[in-house]
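Quick one: Methylthioribose-1-phosphate isomerase from Hypocrea atroviridis, structure tokens please.
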Amino acid sequence: MSALEAVKYQRGKLEVLDQLRLPHEFHYDPVSTRQEAFDSIATMRVRGAPAIAIVASLGLAVELHNNPIAAASDSELITRIDEALDYLKESRPTAVDLSNAIAQLKAVIRTTEGKGQTAITESFIEEAERIFKKDLQNNLSIGDFGTQWLQSQAGASAEQQISVLTHCNTGALATSGHGTALGIIRTLHYKSFLKHAFCTETRPYNQGSRLTAFELVHEGIPSTLITDSMAAALFRTKKTENNIAAVIVGADRVVRNGDTANKIGTYQLAVLAKHHGIKFIVAAPTTSIDLDTKTGDGIKIEERKKEELTQITGAVVGSDGQVDKESKVRVATADQRIGVWNPAFDVTPAEFIDVVVTEKGAVEKGPDGTFDFSKILPERW
Ligand code: MRU
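--- reply ---
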């Protein structure tokens, strides 16, 4: 079984899986300029906080490798790269990984100022490649720390398997591999600690049914898809039978007190989990942590176009039940004149989150109801 890859990269060449065509079609778009990277992100052909940062970083790296900027001086080159990064930053606003990657790239190229333009360009490309590789290592560590936490808190083991619910897509497709929340689920499965994974459809963009369900089936993980509106009924009727121990989600931005922006629908799951005595886990690399924003009130939530609610794209299913993978239809699912509110993310207050699992360890909530990330990020605190 081949691993799913959101991006394929070698120096000078980047290909990005068009996730809008999944699960029916596997098609990689070449991305070789900042504009193509911006477009892939803004049109959601690539999504998920880490993957967005990776495509922006590597997209510009490929452009700089193939068409180095001809500048009059080192400082002019740095200014021109900064401008390209500032442009990419506008592609999507909520996920902080992109801003964190941009800040990191800007800092690194400054360390080579005075060493010549080839050295500056090289330092940019190497840092973009490091960000890409590090993300996979981060996710493997998140998988281990999350599993250890579930062993200690929920007794997860091969003898006492647990079931979990996840929302949106946080897997290999949203990252450089393994995944964050889905990474914990993968690790639980590899250790035979997982009984069953439930995933939500994740309206309106269906990252759960289009991407997570696809990843779970691809990996042979025992799993069931539900609509977002079925979570309460799932907890009420199937918690005991399935030993549902945790909701595990990713994050687009975890702020200083632990308030977490993630895909719309996350907050309601956190409220439900608390009511039903189910642990609520946020799995995110430290690149998703924003210490400059104090609480969730400071997070800018992206609002998207109304057609995401009133129309849907899919493939034709024949009368024999077979999906015609070549076909593509766009269907209206509502009166097109209706007004729509379509926030892409919501904020889950820290009080509903039990633990934030990062690649540096699991951070539990303190007695004051907030998270203290100074232990894992002393250098950024
Ligand atoms: O709008 P999307 O599809 O980019 O949103 C993705 C999510 O919200 C994910 O759950 C989140 O980015 C975590 S990615 C590991």
